[in-house]
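User: Run a structure prediction on this.
Assistant: Running it now.
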Amino acid sequence: MKYEGDIIRPPSEAHSLLLQVTVGCSHNRCTFCPSFKDKRFRIKGLDEIVEDLEYAARRFRRVDRLFLCDGDALIIPQKRLIEILDAIRARLPGVGRIGTYANAKSIRKKSVEELRELKERGLGIVYLGIESGNEEILARIRKGATPDRIVEAARRVKEAGITLSVTVLLGIGGTAMSAAHARDTARVLTDVDPDFAGVLTVMIVPGTPLYEEARSGGFVLPGTFALLEELGVIVSGARFTDCFFTANHASNYLPIRARMPGDREKVLRLIGDVVRRGDASLLRPESMRGL
């Protein structure tokens, strides 16, 4: 497999075949994200992609799941994307689910009918970074979407019958907008009602615009227990129909895995108890946190 640069994938795709169909991220402006800053975005040629698929077909006895890399494969024009999915099915017939990252812009470029066409060819899950439900924060971090557009895009994925996994970021509003961030994020999660929701904690990485903003004092990350209070507000305010909810990413201080809404009260009791006790020994040590 010929990979260009570092390859980023969701934790849940750890055992998937990673097929790089684009290099970099089509948006690549988010102030907090260091992942694709060294890559100039391009869509790989079909010949390159088929060559990798044929290598995988020779090398691996069976491939059950496949993830399309890099940052936003859904931005690929529909005709080319169908060609890629057909090539996967022809060469790796055992693949039962294909996943991809997406953003609100790339999803909204596809109609529900087009998304259904992709689903019929194996696209089974879309990972959408929401980050925050607050419009001012989204503008500050240069997300390239409003809450309304994020909700519209997410609902389009669900209407097409594709599994939707979303992520939000604790702390991305800084201390100044911590309360608004948590409240509005809970509202957007309710409106989206995803199949999976993952909560991560923002980490300020050197080389990113957010790092420079933090150095100048323009952005102040909430303290550890303030971040947990944000998590509590999100869990308390979000209303899910049937969602697997996690906050167990390596960036988080308090690992949580829950089925919502059934586990909601249990999770709230856990968060409330940890915040009231203020005991850092109950949390993941800084030395074990990471991206």
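The mean pLDDT is 96.
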